[in-house]
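Hallway conversation turned thread

IA: we were arguing at lunch whether anyone had actually written out sulfoacetaldehyde reductase (NADPH) end to end. Turns out nobody had. So, for the record, here is the sequence (252 residues) and right after it the structure tokens. Reply here if something looks off.
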Amino acid sequence: MDNIVLITGASSGFGEECARVFAKQGSYRLILASRRLDLLDKLASELRPMCDVHISELDVSSTTSVDKFLTDLPEKYRDIDIFINSAGLALGLDPTQNSNFEDWNVMIQTNVMGMLRLTHAILPRMVERNKGHIVSLGSTAGNWPYPGGNVYGATKSFIQSFARGLKSDLLGTNVRITNIDPGLSKTNFSLTRFKGDAVRADSLYENKKPLLAEDVASIICWVCSLPSHVNINNIEVMPVCQAFAGLSVSSS
Ligand code: 8X3
């Protein structure tokens, strides 16, 4: 029986490319979920020649939406084997003292509470079946603070820390947990962060060779394809053109 993979945030970025990479393996059934049903519909038409695909509207920042998504899951997609938590976003790059509080709320509701809502719903059945794998998307921003990263970085630190907590709790079961921390990646991440300002978003990638969504998706697919006794705890991945910033000192 093909493994069932749930991908949230599947209409763009890492989630969309994960859908493509997993579909190509020919041994998975996919549940693709995101707020954009029209984009999922298009993606599903592309992938259905390769594998079974169920699509569903899902806003991970809403408990009502998560509940409806789970209730509406068709019988043959209920035993989720792999959960890839790709839904997440950054909003704004202003210093904390100038930040928009509602942006913080959206990031926390999506990045933190979204992961928790779905994990709380899905994990008990994985443990019951003694089979499963949760892949969370952290970020280098959770490891290496940068100006304006404040709440976004903190949500990603939460994800990393929660993944390690899960690993502790899952000892004695065959359920796996992996956190992936990508660095600079060319997706619609910056366009969302800068609220549609394409010039500002594109300037981040100018004359650089960032990671592509497919680079990260291949890593996720590899992690999930390892023998069932192997658990990759964490992977931090950057493009060659990226490194750590030094400590900063102000003259004032
Ligand atoms: C994305 C990495 O450095 O753009 O999570 O925040 S960064």
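OS: looked through it. Residues 101-129 form the longest helix (29 residues).
IA: good, adding that to the notes. The mean pLDDT is 97.
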